[in-house]
Structures
1.
Amino acid sequence: MLLVAVYSPLVAADAPTPIDAKTLFNANCAVCHRPTGAGTPGLAPPLTDIPAVLMSSSEGRRQLAMTVLYGMYGEITVNERRYNFKMPAFSQLEDEVLAALVNYVSHDLAQVAATTTLTAADLAAERNHPVDGAAVRAHRTQVLSSNVP
Ligand code: HEC
């Protein structure tokens, strides 16, 4: 009886599907940011430096959550290159998926991987404070000016 229960397909169906962040990144983000996160000059910035820096503070983690939920627009400069195109909002994706995507960027694509992690709860908290992409960019400037070593 026990074996029947263990091998029942119903038991397997209850197991949560693991999130494959690399596949999700390649499907949703790589068209602009490239699969390595190197970015596309004139279009989308590299994700190999700044996101891991932002990950090190609570305001920086809020910034990353805001960026993927609400997008961002307005000029930014990364590694001496200027970008002024629109990052789309991805609020249609679930909190767990967005957290996994930001963690993939900050841990796997980063030059120096972040040591902290974004959680689904962090995303849920930002969903309660909708902002537009211009405000996301203004918050980025504020966080980085007090955060960059
Ligand atoms: C249509 C192109 C496009 C797609 C698709 C896209 N992005 Fe972006 N992303 C941008 C642009 C453009 C910016 C910079 C916006 C600006 O200049 O204000 C940006 C900025 C960012 C930033 C902030 C970087 C920084 O230095 O603060 C992060 C993080 C980010 N994107 C992650 C993602 C993730 C994760 C995905 C997939 C879920 C994604 N992007 C999909 C174009 C895109």
2.
Amino acid sequence: MKAAHAAQGEDLTAEPHAAHEGTRDVDRHAVHEVTREADSHAAHEGTRDADRHTVHEVTREADSHAAHEADAHAAHKATHKADPHAAHKAGDQAAREADPADHRAAREVIDIATGTWRAQALYAAAALRIPDHIAGGAVSCEALAALTGTGEDAVRRLMRLLATMGVFEGTETAGYRLNAVSTLLRSDVSGSMRDMCLIYGEEFHRAWGAVLPALRTGGTGFEEAFGSSLGDYLRDTPGAGPKFQRAMSVGSAPFATVSRAIDFSRHHTVVDVGGGYGTLLSLVLRGNPGLRGVLFDLPHMAPLAHEHLADAVDPGRYEIVTGDVFEEVPPGGDAYLLSRVLQDWDDADCVRLLVNCRRAMGSSGRLFILERVVAEDRSTALPVLWDVHLMLIAGGRERTLPEYRSLLARAGLRLESLEPLPLETSLLVASPA
Ligand SMILES: C[S@@+](CC[C@H](N)C(=O)[O-])C[C@H]1O[C@@H](n2cnc3c(N)ncnc32)[C@H](O)[C@@H]1O
């Protein structure tokens, strides 16, 4: 393993996802909103104890499917009241409600089957920088076509679809305007989701296109489509690594809450294993001025991590160490972070890397794992979606709480607690068994 350098400072008050700043209670409230579990507030409170998660799951099980649907319907209506895009969504909703009851299932199939069309329309807008152009004053389809090098008729039809989907406000005659959704597709805003839309619409779209061969062979759709694993592709394709990391950063909204969710006061050195860009590490270091940090990742990630950390953290507070997590994890830390790493590997590999973390952390260290936990009662939405996505792009998986417990136990670790974070992400805290 090789040590690389340290450097200095950006104002993290400007860090993306400021919406998630706030008290932990507020964050929990956000989790409630996302998971639509109106009655689980009590169960969520104080869920540092992993067993409370079980209580929480039991509570969820008590909800009937019908109740869930009713909640969803109520939530949808409530959303309409508060949501600035209600006018657009209302058109969509009105179209649904006009369907006779015996056609609802057909509508459902059409909605699901055309989901990829919606996603690709969103991708096109992001790739063509349409939100940036509208922000710059180009509100007519004629101007947008000229600026994006596309046909005016084509842009007109794309914008009509996107406005109907609630992505833009306005009309062709009045001109189009940004709303909260399209603002997130601008390239120059805090929390921009443009990079995520690009990789989803390009590499990941192609990987999903190979879903059948992947399911049949047990390989990944990514390998079917690109002829190499995602890891090799990111290492060998110019520009692919930064593109992937920028997309990963978009999904790091829960990171802003980690500094508050973890009491680092008893820790001195935090090691971010597979830390990528260093987005999480920089937030943790900024939130805990007494802490030192080590970012550990593959050698090709070091320049990217250096670039980010050099801008975000004071000199001397961190080092970048490169190596292979399956060989050794840097020792000497007393807090180890493992964010969105286990999701990429099968159980045997997870145990191997967890054993290396256990070895590095000594007897008094703690391991903090950020992952999406699949609820066993079908009440989680994003974890099961990402579970299939991970299977198709990396051969990885999302796991249930018992599955995490089992992996940890096989590596000599014990699950201490679980805390829900925004966007259906969880913080699992483990210590030596
Ligand atoms: C999905 S990314 C997660 C990055 C970051 N922790 C986050 O949550 O944004 C997985 C990370 O694991 C790193 N990684 C993959 N294989 C590794 C290995 N064998 N040794 C060390 N790091 C590895 C990748 O380079 C990547 O940065």
